[in-house]
Amino acid sequence: xxxxxxxxxxxxxxxxxxxxxxxxxxxxxxxxxxxxxxxxxxxxxxxxxxxxxxxxxxxxxxxxxxxxxxxxxxxxxxxxxxxxxxxxxxxxxxxxxxxxxxxxxxxxxxxxxxxxxxxxxxxxxxxxxxxxxxxxxxxxxxxxxxxxxxxxxxxxxxxxxxxxxxxxxxxxxxxxxxxxxxxxxxxxxxxxxxxxxxxxxxxxxxxxxxxxxxxxxxxxxxxxxxxxxxxxxxxxxxxxxxxxxxxxxxxxxxxxxxxxxxxxxxxxxxxxxxxxxxxxxx
Length: 282
What we know:
Elements: H1 12-21, E1 50-56, E2 60-66, E3 71-76, E4 83-89, H2 99-106, E5 116-118, E6 124-131, E7 136-137, H3 145-152, H4 164-173, E8 186-188, E9 191-194, E10 200-203, E11 211-216, E12 220-226, E13 242-247, H5 263-277
Antiparallel strand pairs: 1-13, 2-12, 3-11, 3-13, 4-8, 4-12, 5-6, 6-11, 7-8, 9-10
């Protein structure tokens, strides 16, 4: 359809002027570029330490590389976010998050403060150094196009009701990865409880302002998607904004309390140290 002569973008000059007039405006869900200009940083975090600041709305997704020692805070702004997250080793993404081993090795299916996310090589990838939510899911994985089509009528990655799986795949594609590289995700801010009869029940109680802070135990590729949980039966596509804030930090020390909290976690940290001390060559 042709633009009317009176349209503010009917000519190239008018379109350029309109675009430039948007400078300085901000959307509710977008990255802050450069990250050091972000306001309301976590206490004690200097602007120069910032490496990532972004807010994701419903169906939003992001992928970012984090160096070893970096902190990543995920803030559930309004209390109804559901963040599907996967991790890959940045320099060798064939090594990736293994949710089954994360559960099995730590003897715990419900992650929370001091939990460690493990790779399929038995290494510590990230630790929960803060967690005011402690309501997470290691059992259901990301929502799928079939889930969303059945509930909302569509599940395409760029449609009105994108699934977490498709949004994660889009992010990984930017780094040359495909569906075969997508592991099971951990879902943050939505707890799934196993009932005595084996049924999986979603605990979807809202908790505005709760957050998780992760410490990267190796150089990571972090991928996240903010989409309704696959057990969420509400007819409306509901996922409130999540704010992602990352900054540089020191790796875990030899006397780190999370490292020393169990023999299994200590071994996972030792495995990561061996890799990193060798320059990531294994």
